[in-house]
Design a protein that fits this description.
The protein is α/β, with parallel strands linked by helices. 32% of the residues lie in helices and 33% in strands.
Length: 237
């Protein structure tokens, strides 16, 4: 199964309606059916053991209504309700449903609902990326705590009991060990290249087997750190 596809669970007690859903989903490469249930209680058991991104959920079903089923889930996935009854539309949207498809619905109407899901997923990924790039730390300097955005850091240099944090906006000197600040930095964004230097991977302009250049600064690569640097840059140093 393709991990990039949207994993769909179909909860529908009418076989013809289920077949329509499956046919429509097959026409969308980004969707993948990972389960089919004929009532909400079966879907509840399915979700205990399986991860899904989207539920196509009939509202009017035996044993438990679709809306009541969603209310019972502590962290429900995205939901598109499918029903022949208009009366449940308000309940569906109050539960945060992505869309509400009134049977019989066309492929065009189905695709509009799916588009809302893909747009919501894209916004979520962009927000996660934004949060990751906007992380920050506070350092004590000049008798105050100074906020430093991680995305602004070029490199960090050890000065015995102090460190110098060089950023795109200038530099900050604070009393702290380089090892302690290394433990605070995300591994995917920073790499130790020497016992005295940590660099931002995204800020590296060029490198040789002995040095890394960031702007006008030429920083030495310590022999003990060559393997890790080579692994991060996917090269042999």
């Amino acid at each position: 199964m393709d991990s990039d596809r949207i994993k769909c669970l179909l909860v529908e007690d009418e076989p013809p309606a289920l077949e329509v859903l499956k046919t429509y989903i097959q026409s969308v490469p980004s969707l993948e059916v990972v389960g089919e249930c004929h009532h909400a209680l079966a879907a509840f058991e399915f979700l205990k053991k399986n991860q899904v991104d989207l539920i196509f959920l009939d509202v009017h079903m035996p044993k438990l209504r679709g809306t009541d089923f969603i209310k019972s889930l502590p962290h429900p996935p995205q939901v598109i309700f499918t029903t022949a009854h208009r009366d449940y539309a308000l309940d569906g949207f109050e539960l945060g449903a992505v869309d509400y498809l009134l049977k019989p619905f066309s492929l065009d109407r189905f695709l509009k609902a799916v588009y809302k899901v893909t747009q919501a997923n894209q916004r979520e990924q962009e927000e996660k990326h934004h949060v990751a790039t906007e992380r920050f730390l506070y350092f004590r300097a000049d008798r105050k705590m100074v906020k430093v955005m991680l995305s602004d850091i070029l490199f960090i240099e050890s000065l015995k009991d102090y460190i110098k944090i060089v950023t795109v906006k200038g530099q900050i000197i604070t009393k702290q060990s380089i090892s302690s600040v290394e433990a605070m930095l995300p591994e995917e964004q920073f790499v130790r290249i020497h016992r005295s230097f940590i660099v931002s991977v995204n800020r590296i302009d060029s490198y040789t087997s002995t040095d890394i250049c960031i702007g006008k600064s030429e920083l030495p690569i310590g022999p003990l750190y060559k393997y890790e640097i080579g692994k991060r840059l996917q090269v042999n140093l």
